[in-house]
Amino acid sequence: MALNRKVALITGGVKNQPRPSPPLRQQRTPSIKVRFYQGNLTSAGAVTRLFQDVLEDFEHIDIVMNTVGKVLKPITAITEEEYDTMFAVNSKTAFFVLKEAAVHVTDAPVEHFTRGVCKELQSRRVSVNNITPGPMDTPFFYPRESPEAVEFHKANGMGNRLTMVEDIAPIVRFLCTDGAWITDQTIFTNGGYTTR
User: What's the pLDDT score for residue 107?
Assistant: First the structure.
């Protein structure tokens, strides 16, 4: 499956997204169109509007990549209100993005959502996977961590470093092309971070 003429909807803050996103940039094609949309995806209505806007602009959606996520601070310092915000961003958004993807894609909680949606969509030959990168070297990560915590996270990954966006891009591209037969999987792309 080539990425030519495919429409990919990628959710997440632009601070953590190169322009265009690596899976698209690595596709050697002269005609990549990138359009930015804004919205608060913790609202189910906003997620629906996002999909409607993309469909209006591009007529179809082939690939959905949800990169929305939020980590506020160490667990011992998180208040109930902050937890509610974090849960809304990390879980509620993932659920409603998957729900809309289940309707519009033509060809912990996130893992369970992935499994449930996978079973529902496999008869339509739509694959659903969850990529789990662990701590990533993005502007989103550093303000929330102490220098000691950053070094701890680096020490737990291969090569004494954090996951880079470029580490994930080849996996996303593979899953969207030759690896389309892979489904219902959580793929840990973190340099062994979770094995320590």
Answer: 41
